[in-house]
């Protein structure tokens, strides 16, 4: 703590490192570099309306989606920061079909790999809606000194060492966990530091917000349709139905529900049996955070963190948020299958 009664992200990381036996500072250094890239991307996102970064970069990413210029910029910034840290030997990014391996000597000896969505929700950039960066950190499996292998990235989510997101919204926040709870840091642009603003976040056991794209209603499983109707019924205690909130930006929808309580669902549909969201760099990091905050995250059946990934860009259905709300939705799914 400095004289101004502020705990910066770096102070927090270093203090927490002291609590982790045998921690030699590699993870701290990696998180520090992620923080640097977050500040650089914040600056660009914040000016998106002014500087010529709107509009498409003309490229198509592995999702078959046109890449917005900020997507490309964010991917480059986080890739550079992770390479510069010397702690990371490779990354899997939404923006690249294959893994990226870092071949310099320092990075080859790196202990960690990172899965990331450098700018999630980028279709919202041009309309000034909150967007985000999502990251997930694992210890590598392949021998240090060798190039990173795909096997390093196909680990269950319960093997994550750390996970977090940066939300570029009315303020820019970094929220992350290393398995010792969830903490949120707000960027103070006056001093250029992420400052601890949301210590030890716990998501409410129950909430009043349900969040999913009801435009897909006709394609939803019967159980999801029944859960939506349940949310719309009058609640006996408050005599009012739940509120429907859906921004269409995972980080923004997840963050609101994390703080206020609620459930976010991106279910399987007839046309997309595995839903839309990616296991490695969207669902696993969010699931780690949700569970660390006392919430829950499943694919409607099993815990997201227990799913063994088969491919880098694998999709899974996602039901996450307040524990009792996720379990209620799961109950409707089970009953509809009977
Ligand atoms: P839909 C953004 O493209 C994204 O990947 C997530 O951020 C968001 O939750 C989801 O897709 C929105 O998808 O089909 O509702 O527009």
Summarize the structure in words.
This protein has helices at 9-19, 26-46, 69-85, 105-108, 222-232, 250-260, 279-292, 323-337; strands at residues 56-60, 66-68, 88-93, 100-101, 112-120, 131-139, 162-168, 172-177, 182-188, 193-198, 209-211, 243-244, 263-266, 296-298, 318-321. With 338 residues, it is an alpha+beta fold. It folds into 2 domains: 9-198, Fructose-1,6-Bisphosphatase, subunit A, domain 1 (Fructose-1,6-Bisphosphatase, Chain A, domain 1), CATH 3.30.540.10; 209-336, D-Maltodextrin-Binding Protein, domain 2, CATH 3.40.190.80. The longest helix has 21 residues, at 26-46. The protein is globular, with a radius of gyration of 20 Å. The termini are far apart. The model has no long low-confidence stretch (mean pLDDT 92). Bound molecules: 6-O-phosphono-alpha-D-fructofuranose.
In short:
This protein has 338 residues and is of the alpha+beta class.
Q: How many structural domains can be distinguished in the coordinates?
A: 2
What class, by secondary structure content? alpha+beta
What is the H/E order? HHEEHEEHEEEEEEEHEHEHEEH
Shape, principal axes of CA atoms: globular
Distance between the termini: 56 Å
The CATH topology annotation of the largest domain reads as Fructose-1,6-Bisphosphatase, Chain A, domain 1
């Amino acid at each position: 703590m400095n004289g101004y009664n502020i705990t910066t992200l770096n102070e927090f990381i270093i203090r927490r490192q002291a609590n982790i036996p045998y921690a030699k500072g590699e993870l701290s250094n990696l998180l520090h570099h992620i923080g640097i890239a977050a500040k650089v991307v914040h600056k660009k996102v914040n000016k998106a309306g002014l500087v010529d970064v709107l509009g498409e970069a003309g490229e198509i990413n592995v999702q078959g989606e046109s890449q917005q210029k900020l997507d490309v910029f964010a991917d480059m910034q986080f890739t550079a920061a992770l390479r510069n840290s010397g702690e990371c030997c490779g990354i899997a990014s939404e923006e690249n079909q294959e893994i990226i391996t870092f071949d310099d000597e320092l990075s080859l000896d790196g202990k960690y790999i990172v899965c990331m969505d450098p700018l999630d929700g980028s279709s919202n950039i041009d309309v000034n809606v909150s967007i985000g960066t999502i990251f997930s950190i694992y210890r590598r499996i392949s021998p240090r000194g060798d190039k990173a292998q795909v096997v390093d990235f196909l680990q269950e989510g319960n093997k994550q060492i750390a996970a977090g997101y940066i939300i570029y919204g009315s303020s820019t926040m970094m929220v992350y966990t290393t398995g010792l709870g969830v903490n949120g840091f707000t960027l103070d642009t006056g001093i250029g530091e992420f400052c601890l603003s949301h210590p030890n976040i716990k998501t409410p056991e129950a909430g009043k917000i349900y969040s999913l794209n009801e435009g897909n209603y006709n394609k939803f499983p019967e159980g999801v349709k029944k859960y939506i109707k349940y949310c719309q019924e009058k609640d006996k205690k408050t005599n009012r139905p739940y509120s429907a909130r859906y921004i269409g930006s995972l980080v923004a929808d997840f963050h609101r529900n994390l703080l206020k309580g609620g459930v976010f669902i991106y279910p399987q549909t007839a046309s997309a049996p595995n839903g839309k969201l990616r296991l490695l760099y969207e669902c696993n990091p969010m699931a780690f955070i949700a569970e660390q905050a006392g919430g829950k995250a499943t694919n409607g059946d099993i815990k997201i963190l227990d799913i063994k990934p088969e491919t880098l860009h694998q999709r899974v259905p996602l039901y996450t948020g307040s524990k009792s709300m996720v379990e209620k939705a799961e109950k409707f799914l089970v009953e509809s299958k009977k």
